[in-house]
Every structure is written in structure tokens, then in C-alpha cells.
Amino acid sequence: MYYDCKPxxxxxxxxxxxxxxxxxxxxxxxxxxxxxxxNAEKGQVTIAYKVFGRFTDELAGVTEGETVLLDGPYGVFTxxxxxx
Length: 84
What we know:
8% of the residues lie in helices and 36% in strands. It contains one helix and five strands. The chain has a five-stranded antiparallel β-sheet, with no helix packed on it. The longest helix is centred in the last third of the chain and has 7 residues, at 54-60. It starts with a strand and ends in a 10-residue tail after the last strand. 10% of the residues are buried.
């Protein structure tokens, strides 16, 4: 499955290949998911996952307009070469 989300307050500077932690609510558990695509103009982030357990089963039930918390981005597994 895939999931498109759009930040409510500000656009995120995320690149494909990085990952974000996803939470259903502030006090809930969080899980990392790889970012497949990020449309900076629209502020949309696309993640993909396999429904394999309670957390991803609940994530699959999220409807448009519901709040999902994202933390990140993390990682540098991107097309752009990192320089140090």
C-alpha cells in the first residue's frame, strides 16, 4: 500500500530515499517508513508499506483529513551524492 500525506503547517524538505517516523497520535508508538516521493510544490509526501501487523493495519485505515504525525527526514540514501 502507499500513503500520501500533506503537512498542515509547513512543507517538509524531504527527498526520496530518506525516511520518516510515523505516529497515529502524540502518545502512540512510532515506526519508520521510507519516502518514495516528495512533491515540494504541493507539500505531499508518499510512503509505501506492507500491511503486516497492528500498526500498519491501523495506518491502512486512515482516511483523508485525519492527522498522522511525521518526524524527520532522516537518512541520506538518495540520488544526490553527499559531500563532506
